[in-house]
Each structure stands twice: as structure tokens, then as C-alpha cells.
Amino acid sequence: MQPQPQKLxxxxxxxFDNIYLGLKQLDETAAERFAADxxxxxxxxxxxxxxxxxxxxxxxxxxxxxxxxxxxxxxRDFSRYRPNFTRSAFNVIDCPSLTQQGxxxxxxxxxxxxxxxxxxxxxxxxxxILSGDADFTPVLLRLRAHDRRTVVLAAGPxxxxxxxxxxxxxxEDVFIExxxxxxxxxxxxxxxPGATIAASDDTLDRMAAALYAEASAxxxxxxxxxxxxxxxFPEFRRDANWLGFFSLRALTVELARRRNxxxxxxxxxxxxxxxxxxxxxxxxxxxEPERA
Length: 292
What we know:
Helix 1 (16-26) packs antiparallel against helix 2 and helix 10 crosses helix 12. With 292 residues, this protein is an alpha/beta fold. Helix content is 38%, strand content 16%. The chain folds into two domains: 8-179, Rossmann fold, CATH 3.40.50; 201-274.
């Protein structure tokens, strides 16, 4: 019998306002499920984030014990969700607004708590930060210097420096589909049978053209950067279930199908790549000089 793989000792820090509002821009249902049932996505994390690529050398899922669970939220706007996190064994820290613009001190509290956890009697192997705030980049670098593994979820665009500072990025669509359970098991990368596509062919063609232009700039575009591109289209509504395709990936596959040069390529995260058309040989464009 093979020995059971040792589970990581993990500390989890959740910037509730940042993640909830980021998810709400993508899908209001996803935001509500994140806030209403944290136990679901906690279990997904503890089981090893089964759709990710993180594994032990023996191929077993990289499972974890979430020993510290802290959630930082603005009680004025989100107090109704507080009991949900308390019931899931979170220590909830209230971070009320300090300015008229609504700025609170959640990021400062999180950084202080993360640094304090480095000195905890328990040696934590891993730190998971749910926030897209690039202000956490220095603390990620500090954790790396202490040889601690780091995982980040950013619901929305995140800076390249922030993503480079961590060991793993949880892609938005992976979190929505698998952690929140908003995709049927084994769902194909197409619209669901009988589903109403909430976009015309003209809209999908324009989105495919924009995807091609964006990906052509660097030869590829990461899955985590796709929502920013799609949201720029007025037809892309929050309640449209990814325009009737029910997932970021299924919508992207349809757009790639409309442009032969585009390909969905596996990776962590997956991405859209561009196959540039081969240049015709100069000999075909130039006529050879006639011999006398």
C-alpha cells in the first residue's frame, strides 16, 4: 500500500470586497454563490483543486489543510454574508470604510496578518490569497524569500508583476466552473443543448476579430485576460451566462472556431494562440528577368 501524500499546511486570506465585486462584474450568480456557500469552494481547495496542474511527484493531488481562514470585509455593505463565513470556520475581520470614496484598510490588515503568520509556531507550507490587488506583490515576494508556496485568485485583470510573484494563479473560469460548481460535470466546450445563444452572429464575429487582434499583438492571450476583452462589448451582459455558452472556455472555443488562425492551447492557464499565415515565397511574387 502506497503511503498517503502529506497534506500542505495552508493559511487562507480572503479580500472579500475585491473578489465579490470582481466576480460580480463577470457573473452575478457566481458572486452570490461565492458569498453564500464558502464551504463548497473550501472543500475544492482542500481536495487539491482537482482541475489544476498542481500534483505531487507521484501524480496525486496536492491536498491541503486550511488551518488559518481569515476573511476581510466591509460590514456596511456585506454584513449579510458574515454568518456564511463564520459557519465555515473563518475568522471574519470587519474593515469599514475610512474615506468618503469607500476605501477601507483590508489590504493593510491582510499584509500584517500574513507577515505575522510567518512567525507562527506552526510552519505553514502555503499561503493562499484571494485578491487581485497588486499591492500584495511585495508580501508575495517576502513569502517567496521564506520558501513558502503561494497561490492567488484574482477575479478580474491582474498586473503581470503580481502574477509573476506567486507560484500558482487560479484562473477565473476554473474557479467559477469547478470551485463554485457552475458547470455541469463533463460539460463539452460548446453551448448547452437547447440553450439560447444571447449574441448574434455579427456580435460573435466582431468578438472573434477583436480576439484575433489582441492575440496577434503577442502571439497569444491568456485565459485570465479574456474577460477584460469580452466585457468591452455592450452585448456581453452579466446575466447572459457567457452569451449562452455558460463558460469562458466554451465561448472562447466558439470565437476561435470563427477564425481559422486562432487555437485554444492547453496550459496553466490555458490560452488562445495565433497561427500567423505563412509568407509566400518571394519567387512567386517576382518574375524572373527574361534572358536575352
